[in-house]
Amino acid sequence: MPLSVSDTADHVYAHGLRNQWHPVVPSHFVARGGLRKVTALGENWLLFRKADGTLSMLADRCPHRGAPLSLGKHLGDRVACWYHGVEVDGSGTVTSVPGLPGCNLEGKTLVTSLPVREVGGAILAYFGDDEHPEPADLTLPEPLTDPAVSAFLCYAEWNVPWRYAMENLLDPMHGAFLHHESHTMYDGDTQAKFRIRETERGYFFEKTDQRGVNFDWVELCRTGVDWVDLSIPYPPSAGPGGPFGIVGMACPVDAERTGVFFWRYRRVDDWRRDTWRFLYKTLIEVRHWQVLEQDRVMLEAMPADADQHENLYQHDLGVVRLRRLYQGQAAQQSKAAPQS
């Protein structure tokens, strides 16, 4: 939905940036022939999948009286509002008003419909504004599109502001402390110097004096959707394949909740691929959930204004860079909101 005059920079920063793609929920949340109510960027939406698998994302609001379409009936290629039966298709167009055939609502596109894409088992949607209604160019993360890479999607919802989840990913040093007992984080120095290295699609935040030991670097990638890539060396006990990688994204559900998406991946082929996938599901996955739980507990325990009472140091350069980037965009988008 378009920005409004009430959308100050603080509001945009709290609820999520516009004019880009965001992950919403895993694809399996919406079965064929199914409806699913979701919240993203502080607004209610309806995910609607036809029997052939085609997916649509509509504002969860009937154009007649504003009732939630998510309570309606799936009619194959359209949704009928439960309140008065008004039918809306996947493009947001009213196809029928059963109570008054020929009503002037019929044939009009009155419900906001968002562009959607599915990748790696997740649904992405484009959230624009009045000045940018057409979807931004989207380049998907390479590990999610490369057939030589095997990935598993992990999704969870945390009661934290979305910016805290993103900042956590741009803070490699927490791995040496918060995750010290992890089978992949136990080794390496607990002291480090960091640097920022700019790239065409974002920037690396990396240790200058350690590489290939644990959580030593992270890259923020801005390719129409914001995502991070990082790599952690794996011990031989974890089976065949290269380093263990993570692609991370965050969905601003609202100002206080975040959907976190983590794809755990390795570059493996032939029998090694099957071995890696078997080991992951039977042994490694539970350990990874333990690491994520440590992140969740820490972030949910932080007060909402934690970032207003800080004393930062050199290890926080990646976080500072991220904040300046996002706060600058929020300010620009709030200025572009229509004035009344």
TrEMBL record:
<keyword id="KW-0411">Iron-sulfur</keyword>
<dbReference type="InterPro" id="IPR036922">
    <property type="entry name" value="Rieske_2Fe-2S_sf"/>
</dbReference>
<dbReference type="GO" id="GO:0051213">
    <property type="term" value="F:dioxygenase activity"/>
</dbReference>
<keyword id="KW-0408">Iron</keyword>
<keyword id="KW-0479">Metal-binding</keyword>
<dbReference type="InterPro" id="IPR044043">
    <property type="entry name" value="VanA_C_cat"/>
</dbReference>
<keyword id="KW-0223">Dioxygenase</keyword>
<dbReference type="Pfam" id="PF19112">
    <property type="entry name" value="VanA_C"/>
</dbReference>
<keyword id="KW-0560">Oxidoreductase</keyword>
<dbReference type="InterPro" id="IPR050584">
    <property type="entry name" value="Cholesterol_7-desaturase"/>
</dbReference>
<keyword id="KW-0001">2Fe-2S</keyword>
<protein>
    <submittedName>
        <fullName>Aromatic ring-hydroxylating dioxygenase subunit alpha</fullName>
        <ecNumber>1.14.13.-</ecNumber>
    </submittedName>
</protein>
<dbReference type="Pfam" id="PF00355">
    <property type="entry name" value="Rieske"/>
</dbReference>
<dbReference type="InterPro" id="IPR017941">
    <property type="entry name" value="Rieske_2Fe-2S"/>
</dbReference>
<feature type="domain" description="Rieske">
    <location>
        <begin position="21"/>
        <end position="125"/>
    </location>
</feature>
